[in-house]
Amino acid sequence: MVKISRAATAVALALALAAPLAAATTAQAAPPAPPATAMVTAPVAAAQQLEIPRPTGQYAIGADTLHLVDHSRRDPWVPSRDRELMVTLTYPAARPGTGHPAPYTTAAEAPVLLKELGIDPARAGEVAGTRTHAGLGARPARGGHPLIVLSPGFGAPRYSLTTLAEDLASRGYVVASVDHAYESFGTSFPGGRLLTCVACKAMQDGTQGSVVTATRAADTSYLLDRLTGKHPAWRYAAAIDKRHIGMAGHSIGGAAALAAMARDGRVDAGVNMDGAFWDTLPPQGLGGRPFMMLGTGDEMHRPGGKDKTWDTTWPALDGWKRWLTVAGAEHMTFCDEPLIADHFGLPHSPLPAQRSVALVRTYVGAFFDQHLRGVEQPVLTGPTSANPEVTFNNP
């Protein structure tokens, strides 16, 4: 979610831990961030809140939060506790302007984010005070809506994918953005708890990323049980069309999307945004289900790039598939980090923040429109002059 040093620490995002190869680690990590002891003096933006781009779809959107506890599993990072998830449901709302605008972060999460950025925590109100486009508790629009699960990058909280979640909801999807316990630098849980990244230290100490992806795949199956089972945990679960389910993720969250599809046949389609794969698909592949890889156009994720896992996974994908790379993108282009960097006057990828958001929304949204709704999307057939940054690869 944030810029970190190449020598990632346990409390940072640990982007290096999202790729299995040391070479991939160096390329995916961001330029060195200022030491935490030397806070950045960034210019105060004219607007005292982050600017969240308006969703592009036809629906107003609502938001709800769930705390889920899987009593059948112990947490792999803190074995004394059952596995917990925090989930934000973003969904098409029946009417605009209903419900108070949902906050971007909690009051406890915002200072942790600024600490990771090297920004004075006194400015935390600029993040915690930001309101999204979703109305808390708004009644959902009529009908059944396909479900999309979003899994963030390693070390990143679920709010790092807010701009994508809101746009998908405005297009008519119920979106479940997941915080996997002890896998982000700071996530609020009930009881005033702020859980930090225990998993980051475990990964530094040699735990393989496949433990993360397997755990997140199990998290996804449990989440689907709780959202689409006989006794759903969400009050508006009837709004979900359980016959059409997709999953997308950033970094290791994208790798987890593949792992979840391999584990659970309920997931019909998946997207990996710039994450190295940690798992080898079984001989049957994904049973013909569609998958899209969307990554940077640099030496990392182009065919024959430093991250060899994309080259080895590509032929194992046995259904509709796309390998797209984006010129000017960096690893954090595929989440909200460029917007946050812009707000605080910090550098980010050459691709402008608003353009980053637009491209991610366009291609991920088109993918799910085609494969969960059955609506053909010309933008997925090949290069277009409207999006010259995007290359279609077919090695």
From TrEMBL:
Residues 1-29 form the signal peptide. It holds the Pfam family PAF-AH_p_II. The keyword Signal applies. GO terms for molecular function: 1-alkyl-2-acetylglycerophosphocholine esterase activity. Keywords: Hydrolase, Lipid degradation, Lipid metabolism, Signal. GO terms for biological process: lipid catabolic process. PANTHER family: PLATELET-ACTIVATING FACTOR ACETYLHYDROLASE. This is Alpha/beta hydrolase. It comes from Streptomyces sp. NBC_00003.
